[in-house]
Amino acid sequence: FAIQFSKVFVLFLKATFIVYYLFKHLSTILKKIRKLFSFALIFQLFKFNIY
């Protein structure tokens, strides 16, 4: 039981850390995603123009 609990606890810590990290870097991640999305959109339009 103790081993199982420690595994769950470690997973919980990792999840908390990941969530904290994501919240900390959310704005930059969103900016990057927006940039990537606009690039993809431009690429799609470009592709449609070629064919």
From TrEMBL:
<keyword id="KW-1133">Transmembrane helix</keyword>
<keyword id="KW-0472">Membrane</keyword>
<keyword id="KW-0812">Transmembrane</keyword>
<feature type="transmembrane region" description="Helical">
    <location>
        <begin position="6"/>
        <end position="23"/>
    </location>
</feature>
<protein>
    <submittedName>
        <fullName>Uncharacterized protein</fullName>
    </submittedName>
</protein>
